[in-house]
C-alpha cells in the first residue's frame, strides 16, 4: 500500500508542473506605424510586453507565458502611404515558428480611431484592451468579431525593404475593411485601431515534425505491428 501511495504522489508531482506549464517565446516584429504587444487569456489582456513607434526598427522580446494564453498585438497606422504588421514568433520549447501571415492569426477592428490605443501596462490600458477583446468575442465591433487577416507582400518588398531579423517567408498583413486584396497599401483607415491575436499553443500550419518525432513515430508503428502480430498468433487454433 505504501508503495502504491508513493507512486500516486510521484505521478501527481509530475502532473502538477504540466498543468501550470509555461512556454518560452521569442518575438521579432515591427508594425507600420506603431504597436503594443500583450498577452492574456481569451477574454482579457493580463500582461504588457512592450511597444514601439518606429516601423524601420525590429524589436526582439523573450518571455514565458502560460500554455493556454494568447498573444495580442495592438496596432495603429498614420493612414498615409502604407500600413502593416510583420513578424515571426518562435515557440522555443517545441521549435515551432509562426509568421505574421499564418492563417491562424485573428484580427479585429475597434473603429475607435488611430489614436488612443492601449500602448502601456497601465490598469486603464489593460482594461480598455480587455473590453475590446470581450466585444470582439461577442461580435460587437466594426469587424463583427474576430476575423481573418489579409496578407500583403513579403519581407523585403517596397516600400519597407528588408527588415533584419525576420525571415523572408514572413509577409506584411493588415485587416481589410473594404474588400481590398492588399490592405497594406495605400494608406487607409481600415477601422483602426486593430488588434491581432493567436493562441500560444497553436501549431503553425507550415510546421513539420520536430527532430526525433519521425523516429518516435516509426517506433510506434513498429510496436503496433508487433502487437497485431502477437494477437494474430494467439487467435490461431
Number of strands: 12
Query: Major sheet: order of its strands?
Result: 3-2-5-12-8-9
Q: Helix fraction?
A: 10-25%
What's the total helix number?
A: 3
Strand content: 25-35%
Mean pLDDT over all positions = 84
- Shape estimate: globular
Classification by helices and strands:
alpha+beta
Q: Largest beta sheet, briefly?
A: 6 strands, antiparallel
Terminal Cα separation, in Å? 41 Å
Please identify the oligomeric state.
Answer: single chain
Give Rg in angstroms.
Answer: 22 Å
Helix-strand string = HEEEEEEEEHEEEEH
Low-confidence segments: 2-19, 207-237
Overview in brief:
This protein has 237 residues and is α+β, with helices and mostly antiparallel strands. It has helices at residues 2-19, 123-137, 213-234, and strands at 22-32, 34-40, 45-52, 59-66, 70-76, 84-91, 97-99, 106-109, 147-148, 150-154, 171-174, 194-199. The protein has a six-stranded antiparallel sheet with strand order 3-2-5-12-8-9.
Question: Helices, strands, pairings?
Answer:
Layout (H helix, E strand, L loop, with lengths): L1 H18 L2 E11 L1 E7 L4 E8 L6 E8 L3 E7 L7 E8 L5 E3 L6 E4 L13 H15 L9 E2 L1 E5 L16 E4 L19 E6 L13 H22 L3
Antiparallel strand pairs: 1-4, 1-6, 2-3, 2-5, 5-12, 6-7, 8-9, 8-12, 10-11
Question: Could you please describe the fold and organization of this structure?
Answer:
- The chain has 237 residues and is an alpha+beta fold.
- Helix content is 23%, strand content 31%.
- The strands form three sheets. The chain has a six-stranded antiparallel sheet with strand order 3-2-5-12-8-9.
- The protein is globular, with a radius of gyration of 22 Å.
- The chain starts with a helix and ends with a helix.
Amino acid at each position: 500500500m505504501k508503495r502504491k501511495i508513493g507512486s500516486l504522489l510521484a505521478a501527481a508531482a509530475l502532473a502538477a508542473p504540466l498543468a501550470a506549464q509555461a512556454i518560452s517565446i521569442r518575438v521579432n516584429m515591427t508594425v507600420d506605424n506603431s504597436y503594443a504587444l500583450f498577452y492574456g487569456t481569451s477574454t482579457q489582456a493580463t500582461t504588457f510586453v512592450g511597444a514601439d513607434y518606429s516601423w524601420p526598427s525590429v524589436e526582439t522580446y523573450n518571455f514565458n507565458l502560460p500554455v493556454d494564453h494568447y498573444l495580442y498585438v495592438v496596432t495603429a497606422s498614420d493612414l498615409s502611404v502604407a500600413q502593416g504588421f510583420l513578424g515571426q514568433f518562435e515557440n522555443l520549447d517545441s521549435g515551432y515558428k509562426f509568421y505574421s501571415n499564418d492563417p491562424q492569426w485573428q484580427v479585429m477592428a475597434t473603429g475607435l480611431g488611430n489614436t488612443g490605443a492601449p500602448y502601456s501596462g497601465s490598469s486603464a490600458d489593460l482594461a480598455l484592451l480587455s473590453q475590446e477583446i470581450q466585444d470582439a468575442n461577442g461580435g460587437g465591433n466594426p469587424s463583427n468579431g474576430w476575423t481573418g487577416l489579409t496578407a500583403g507582400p513579403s519581407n523585403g518588398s517596397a516600400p519597407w525593404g528588408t527588415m533584419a531579423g525576420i525571415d523572408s517567408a514572413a509577409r506584411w498583413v493588415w485587416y481589410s475593411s473594404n474588400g481590398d486584396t492588399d490592405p497594406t497599401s495605400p494608406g487607409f483607415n481600415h477601422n483602426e485601431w486593430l488588434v491581432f491575436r493567436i493562441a500560444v499553443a497553436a501549431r503553425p500550419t507550415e510546421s513539420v515534425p520536430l527532430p526525433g518525432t519521425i523516429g518516435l513515430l516509426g517506433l510506434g508503428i513498429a510496436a503496433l505491428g508487433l502487437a497485431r502480430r502477437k494477437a494474430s498468433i494467439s487467435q490461431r487454433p
